[in-house]
Structures are given as C-alpha cells and as structure tokens.
Amino acid sequence: MKTDGEDYPLSGEIDVMKYYNKEPRIKDRTRMVAAEKDVLGLLWLTKLKIK
Predict the structure, then answer these.
(1) pTM for the whole structure
(2) Strand pairing partners for 20?
(3) What are residue 34's phi and psi, to 5 degrees?
C-alpha cells in the first residue's frame, strides 16, 4: 500500500501533527511534541479567552 507520509525522525522531536508511514516505537513516544503554531490554532478553535 502506498502512503503519502514520511518516515519519522530517528532522533530529535517527532511532530504529532504529521502523517508518518509507520507508527513510532513505544520508546520513541517520549519524543512526540506539538508545534506551538498547531497548539495555538487548536486553542483558537475552542474560542478560549486566555488572560
């Protein structure tokens, strides 16, 4: 089956908002992060007012 994703990085951070060809290994899940831009976009969608 052909996929349009990419291979996840073997070192450094793994972006949770990207599509990867394979699931990261269990031990690599501690390297998963969300980009600030993505988090701010999700907060904007909720219409939360942050003071």
Answers:
(1) 0.59
(2) 6
(3) -110, 135
User: Would you state the pLDDT for residue 2?
Assistant: 56
DSSP state of 25: P
Q: For residues 26 and 20, give the distance between their C-alpha atoms in angstroms, rounded to a whole number.
A: 15
Domain extents in the chain? 1-51
**Which residues are CB-contacts of 13 (< 8 A; sequence separation ≥ 6)?**
31, 32, 33
Contact 28, 11 (CB under 8 A): no
Give the model confidence (pLDDT) of 20-39 as tens digits: 888 888 888 889 899 888 88
